[in-house]
């Protein structure tokens, strides 16, 4: 079975945790220990988030007096692929000795005229209280939005059209390797009229990019793993109800939060609608149970 698995940014750095390298490396190891049984048995591609990390690097770059202009988000996205990819690569090698593992830098094609460039939605960096977030927004020209009870910086998140390196990823997978790729949704790039690629100031949603990749690789299943056990109907209301099974049509009748559960639900619905296969959302530590249909929110064409 070929499975494409996304590890949420929250799994790599929980809200409120210090972004120390040792903490993130330990989180990456915990994430991989949860996935190792699946990777031992199936063809596995692993993607990951980078929201907390790309925002942290943007803060560091903005504070560097040696720079005349802070590094752009495509470059920072590439840095997060290297950093997180390295932690995941090493954790996979230590957990599954004998397996071939590779972590790639790869790019995601977006449209230069995507309306998302004018309407930032992607949360990056740490959470702030309302007063601090509004002060930083006016000092630094950030867009900000509420993330639950906190506030965070938001940046443009254009829709992923294609992972540029899909063919290389496919051949690595066919050669028996576990492939870590599409980190942070992939480095966002556009293709000019002359056919040349160039980076853009954005962070692609990793769940939507994971879906594009899973479709292109003819995956049998797609798992989006995060820090909640299931998608919840009425998440912030008086009667929150976890959804264990659903059809895409049933999920599409509900409303989910932009920038967090919304893109995950869109990604699983699209994967099931396009492929007729199974997709699921749930907690990282339940990965094996989710694949066997015993945990998480499992989405299938029939909802059974
Ligand atoms: N309807 C919902 N059901 C479950 N979780 C939800 C819902 N709406 C918002 N959330 C939030 O979505 C978060 C997961 O999304 P996100 O933060 O983007 O995850 P990750 O970075 O792990 O990919 C959860 O921690 C939860 O607080
Ligand atoms: N790029 C991205 O979607 O990151 P998170 O999963 O950390 O939000």
Automatic annotation (TrEMBL):
Keyword Kinase annotated: yes
> Which domain of life, per UniProt?
Bacteria
Q: Which CDD domains match?
A: AAK_CK
Answer whether the UniProt record assigns the keyword ATP-binding to this protein.
Answer: no
List the SUPFAM superfamilies hit by this protein, alphabetically: Carbamate kinase-like (SSF53633)
Among Pfam families, the record links this protein to:
AA_kinase
Q: Which GO terms describe its molecular function?
A: kinase activity
Q: Which residues form the Aspartate/glutamate/uridylate kinase domain?
A: 1-278
Alphabetized, the UniProt keywords read: Kinase, Transferase
Q: Which family does it belong to?
A: Belongs to the carbamate kinase family.
What is the name attached to this protein's record? Carbamate kinase
This chain's source organism reads: Paractinoplanes globisporus
